[in-house]
Amino acid sequence: MSTITAWLRLMRLGNAPTALSAIAGAWALYGGEPFQVASVGVAIVAAYIGGMLLNDVFDQSFDEKHHPDRPLPRGLIPRSHVIAAAMFCGILCLTLAGRLAQTEAVILVAAIALYSWCHKSSVWLAALLLGGCRGLAVLVAAAMLGDGASGISTPIVLTLTVAHGAAGAAITVAASQEHRQRPGPGGVVPFTRLLPLVVFILLDPPGSTLEDWATDPGMLAMLGWLVWEFACERKRQSKQPGQAVGAWIAGFSAVDLVVASWVLHVPSMALAAICFVLSRVLQRFLPAT
């Protein structure tokens, strides 16, 4: 394994596009200049990568016994370099968040650090913290693009936050059991996403006729998301059920595509779709967990 590949594995780069797509909902709602949107994306991805690096730092002793093929146990990268890179990512996130999203970014970085430190102590605590991190990423993006606190208080943003947070918690529980024959929680993952997404329909119904519902971009995107969740469930019941975890993670971008399609914001729709495809492609070469 080369040094570059080792760094990419530490960063879980295969999942990073799903962190980037977390800005799609806020971008669809509030718009933004290209440089501003790019700053939001870099801030969220930096927080994600920093968390992945810290995860391996705190897991080094565990990995030396159970996953000796990981980069740190193999000595491919000095531990001090990984710590420095994680700190840089956290500082970059806080700097880019600026005044508008300062509080949300501080809470996000703190939650990431806390998760990395204690996620092995309790699956349920890890699920709570990881779900919080996924939800907070949405709030940071909304605050940065939506003029601070006013940007995070809209029903769509709060619903998307719940969708990501609940799914993040459910996937964490599933990932902790991926070594089993049929890792859980199975249908709980799409269920935790479905309930918040139904709120979008209640907030903004597609129309009064069947044709309105059948041709609405948001409904078509939701249909595509449902098909994907069925595919994830098939992976969970296959001979390699651990593959379902990576597929569930890619589903974050599918949910972001639903929201962007509901608002009918083409640039954010394209971003979410590209992130979904890119995540699945990268996961073929870099492990999702």
Task: Please characterize this protein's 3D structure.
- The chain has 289 residues and is mainly alpha-helical.
- It has a single domain, classed as UbiA prenyltransferase (Tetracycline Repressor, domain 2), CATH 1.10.357.140.
- Helix content is 74%, strand content 0%.
- It has 14 helices and no strands.
- It has helices spanning 3-10, 16-20, 24-30, 34-58, 60-66, 79-97, 102-118, 123-145, 155-175, 188-203, 210-215, 217-236, 243-263, 266-283.
- The chain is globular and about 60 Å long.
What structural class is derived from the secondary structure elements?
A: mainly alpha
| CATH architecture title | Orthogonal Bundle
Mean pLDDT: 89
Strand content: under 5%
Q: Quick one: overall form?
A: globular
Look at the structure and name the CATH superfamily.
Answer: UbiA prenyltransferase
Q: Regarding CATH, which class?
A: Mainly Alpha
Beginning-to-end CA distance, first to last residue: 17 Å
What is the total number of structural domains?
1
Helicity level, as a percent range? over 70%
Helical run tally: 14
Task: Provide key terms for this protein.
single chain, 289 residues, mainly alpha, Tetracycline Repressor, domain 2
